[in-house]
Design goal:
Layout: E1 2-4, H1 11-22, E2 34-38, H2 44-52, E3 58-63, H3 68-78, H4 89-105, E4 109-114, H5 118-128, E5 135-139, H6 144-152, E6 157-161, H7 167-182, H8 187-191, H9 198-201, H10 205-211, H11 242-252, H12 266-282, H13 285-301, H14 303-313, H15 318-342, E7 346-348, E8 354-362, E9 365-369, H16 377-388, E10 392-396, H17 402-415, E11 422-424, H18 429-437, E12 441-447, H19 450-461, E13 471-474, E14 480-483, H20 489-501, E15 513-517, H21 521-532, H22 553-565, E16 570-573, E17 586-589, E18 604-610, H23 615-623, E19 627-628, E20 630-634, H24 638-647, E21 652-655, E22 672-673, E23 691-699, H25 707-710
Parallel strand pairs: 1-2, 2-3, 3-4, 4-5, 5-6, 9-10, 9-12, 10-11, 12-13, 14-15, 14-20, 15-18, 17-18, 20-21
Antiparallel strand pairs: 7-8, 8-23, 16-17, 19-22
């Protein structure tokens, strides 16, 4: 029995479990227990030393590594300091040899070397000398020629490693193995390449790495350098490290929420911002961009306090709190980079003797109205976009989350934003109404419900004497994920759990309607119900918690009343803690797509089926709801992806992944129809909406003629 310790973030936990099993008295004297070690991991040699120190013989299967690309992506997405594995194939080969040498010398390890690389195999044979106290391993259907003579003529052992199971379950595994061994860097691929010489195929990997000075692959930058120059990636926290986790848990549970007084006089705030506008608009663009970059740095420096406020005030889980601080910093750096790249004056073409230029200026005072579900990231994203374009801002947070907004504004002042250029308006709908009704407001950026967005839109056009001002609105959606019969069920279920129940379902992008092809619906639903059982409901300061409470009593009462009305159609619900505003994650069966008519903002997922051959019709039914925020597809048919990309009327489409967690600059976020006005936040067109465009045309001939034209060289005729 060989246990794989596959993912790097679970390595320490895996070793704890493997070590615990190895120490069981019932297994004493049994030498059939073992583990796999991946040479592409930087801790591989340390794992071998650990295994050799156990009080028993351990079978150790050494492999190059199975999920290299996934590990690279995870590290980049989480913004970690460095990769837990080697970024060059040659470096993995060197690591494999170093670990193999350790295994051959270890007293309590029975080595097994899994490789199809003839150079690796030959090196191990050279080091082992006359010893046969180890075995080779190969995949079924591969490496036959390499190992045939070693086994039959030289007496070496080779175990055949074969997947067992049905076609549906094993297809993804087999495809991954084929891709790995068919990659350009694979020994198997290179052996079949007639253009390569024997010397090139058998080049010493140690020499290859020495030749590049041990540097990482140039096409795989550190996560911090993932994006374009000027847009540095935000830094994350490695919660798989126990010391880091303990320190983070202590920090987020330290009391951090301070009361914030409600705003009594909205008009005076607008007046101050209006008076501050000319000076801030005249501030050089580069200076304003630098202020945003300084703010991003301060957000990361003050990360633990901000996370504590998010956990305690907004009921964010620890991973969600990390993500929110990172997104806020990403908005600041991205909009700073975009402002420098896109907002400068532009020279336009025209006839001789004329100079034409286009300038972008601030509009005046903007009102930014933020939601409670992203009270830092969206609050700051809207606000800094308005600021960097030269506008002053009166920012209104949701009444449930003023403390995190106050903390963000104080950091903005420290970063260099003038105190009258950014002012905080705290309160409920009355404060919001007073703000949007003020004729000095030159624009509104709003994120929240569709109903509130419509009320703001009506307010902005109600008075004929008021200037026409822009409204940027991002609202909710009845977001659907379509799953066909070719989808990998394990991946579907993992992405559904994340999309539906993370943040207690309180994301505008969250999955509300799961549409599964009828042929596979029973199996997918059964797996989904089982996965729901693993969710932990509890206090958000507890790292074990997956689902926290909803935001307030009103939200709780509305959601629980709906669940009570749908009890006959409920196919799975969890037990929720009695103390607190915990809405249980619930799965509800619908007969038709049309049966879901509104967004339920909580951990509630509806599921319906569709028939094979009706993908376009199913997409049309979702489109007909009028919302257009997010949609997902799980399919291994490329044509299905092409169809949904062409026909889905949504702002954000996600294929074979979860539907939440849009990354600034990579997945600009925002919908259409009932889901918003655009432009998309975190995208290249967002800043323009905050600007006034002014074209200037100058007749230069009126000053005595066009000197440039008159001085042209005759040689050009």
């Amino acid at each position: 029995l060989t246990v794989d310790a596959e993912e790097s973030e679970r390595l320490e936990m895996s070793l704890d479990i493997i070590g615990g099993v190895a120490a069981l008295p019932a297994l004493k004297g049994w030498d059939g227990f073992g583990m796999a070690v991946q040479a592409y991991g930087k801790r591989a040699r340390a794992v071998i030393a650990w295994a050799n120190g156990l009080d028993r013989v351990m079978n150790v299967r050494l492999v190059k590594g199975a999920y290299w690309d996934s590990e690279i992506k995870r590290t980049q997405v989480e913004g970690l300091a460095d990769y837990p594995l080697f970024t060059r194939k040659a470096a993995t080969d060197v690591s494999y040899l170093a670990v193999a040498k350790d295994m051959l010398a270890a007293e309590n390890i029975r080595p097994a070397f899994a490789s199809h690389n003839a150079l690796t195999v030959a090196t191990i044979l050279e080091w082992a000398g006359n010893s046969h106290d180890f075995e080779f391993q190969r995949l079924h259907g591969m490496g036959d020629g390499l190992y045939e003579r070693l086994v039959r003529e030289h007496g070496h052992k080779c175990r055949i490693y074969a997947p067992v199971g049905g076609h549906r379950d094993l297809l993804a595994y087999l495809v991954r193995r084929l891709l790995e061994n068919g990659a350009n860097s694979s020994f198997v691929h290179q052996l079949a390449d007639a253009r390569l010489t024997e010397a090139e195929i058998l080049a010493d990997p140690v020499a290859k790495i020495a030749a590049v000075g041990g540097a990482r692959h140039p096409s795989i930058p550190l996560p911090i350098d993932l994006f374009t120059p000027g847009h540095r990636n935000s830094t994350g926290i490695d919660l798989s490290d126990i010391a880091t986790l303990d320190a983070t848990v202590k920090a987020v549970n330290t009391p951090a929420v301070k009361p914030v007084a409600a705003t009594a006089d909205v008009a005076s705030l607008v007046a101050r911002a209006h008076a501050a506008f000319p000076a801030w608009n005249a501030t050089p663009l580069d200076t304003r961009a630098s202020v945003l970059e300084k703010l991003a740095d301060l957000l990361e420096q003050d990360r633990e306090r901000l996370m504590a406020i998010l956990v305690q005030e907004a009921f964010k889980t620890i991973p969600d709190a990390i993500g929110e601080v990172r997104e806020a910093a990403d908005f600041c750096r991205y909009y700073a980079q975009q402002a420098r790249a896109r907002l400068g004056s532009v020279e336009l073409p025209g006839p001789t003797g004329e100079r034409n230029t286009l300038h972008l200026e601030g509009r005046g005072v903007w009102a930014t109205v933020a939601p409670w579900n992203f009270p830092l990231a969206i609050f700051l994203g809207q606000t800094v976009a308005a600021l960097v374009t030269g506008n002053t801002v009166v920012a209104k947070p949701a009444p449930q989350t003023p403390a995190i907004a106050q903390a963000a504004v104080e950091l903005a002042y420290r970063a260099g934003v003038p105190r009258d250029a950014l002012l905080l308006a705290v309160g409920g709908p009355d404060v919001g109404q007073a703000l949007t009704e003020d004729h000095r407001i030159a624009g509104v950026a709003f994120t929240g419900s569709t109903a509130t967005a419509k009320r703001i839109a009506r307010t902005l056009v109600a008075d004929d004497d008021r200037p026409i001002v822009p409204l940027i609105a991002e609202t909710g959606g009845i977001n659907a994920m379509i799953v066909d019969s070719t989808a990998l069920p394990e991946q579907v279920v993992a992405d559904v759990i994340t999309s539906s129940f993370r943040s207690a379902g309180q994301r505008c992008s969250a999955l509300r309607l799961l549409l599964v092809q009828a042929d596979v619906a029973d199996n997918v639903i059964a797996m989904l119900k089982g996965a729901m059982e693993t969710l932990v409901l509890g206090a958000t300061g507890n790292p074990a918690t997956d689902v926290g409470p909803v935001i307030d009593q009103a939200a709780y009462d509305k959601l629980m009343a709906y669940l009570a009305s749908m009890v006959t159609q409920t196919i799975k619900t969890l037990d929720a803690p009695a103390d607190g505003l915990f809405v249980p994650p619930t799965l509800i069966r619908l007969d038709r797509v049309e049966d879901l008519t509104q967004e339920w903002f909580g951990p509630i997922l509806h599921v319906a089926t569709w028939e094979a051959g009706t993908l376009s019709e199913t997409i049309a039914k979702v489109n007909a709801k009028g919302y257009g925020l997010t949609m997902g597809l799980h399919s291994r048919i490329a044509r299905a992806g092409e169809v949904i990309e062409a026909e889905a009327a949504v702002g954000n489409l996600y294929i074979n992944r979860s539907m939440i967690g849009a990354v600034v600059g990579s997945q600009p976020f925002g919908g259409e129809g009932l889901s918003g006005t655009g432009p998309k936040a975190g995208g290249p067109h967002y800043l323009y909406r905050f600007c006034a465009e002014r074209a200037v045309s100058v007749d230069t001939t009126s000053a005595g003629g066009n000197a440039t034209l008159l001085s042209l060289d005759e040689g050009g005729i």
